[in-house]
Design brief:
single chain, alpha+beta, 6 helices, 16% strand, elongated
């Protein structure tokens, strides 16, 4: 979207103005309805640093792992919580996960 010359200033703008990012995917629930699995990033000094430093952008997901007490959650934790509460089927969570190995590890660790 942005030229190489524009990227540093866009990173600065994003890091200064971002409050939160919330993503969701709707999954078939055990009740027959649909249920959202969510991923939430909230503004923090760590997230700002990862946005500003182009070499750390690929590691932004790590910010959630160290900031869960601030209300951040990744899709795998959300999926695992739904599976353990019997709100969604494990097979549906696995098909929705971008990291199946991590998801299955979380489910085993939370049981």
């Amino acid at each position: 979207f942005f030229t190489e010359e524009e990227k540093p200033s866009m990173r600065i703008n994003l890091s200064n103005n971002l409050l939160a990012i919330m993503c969701q995917m709707l999954l078939p629930a055990s009740s027959g309805k649909r249920l959202p699995a969510v991923e939430v990033y909230r503004h923090s000094a760590a997230l700002r640093e990862y946005i500003l430093d182009a070499s750390k952008t690929a590691e932004i997901a790590e910010v959630i792992q160290t900031n869960q007490e601030d209300g951040m959650i990744d899709f795998n934790h959300s999926l695992a919580a739904h599976v353990l509460a019997d709100r969604i089927a494990k097979k549906d969570a696995i098909s929705a996960s971008m990291n199946v190995e991590k998801l299955t590890s979380l489910i085993k660790g939370m049981e």
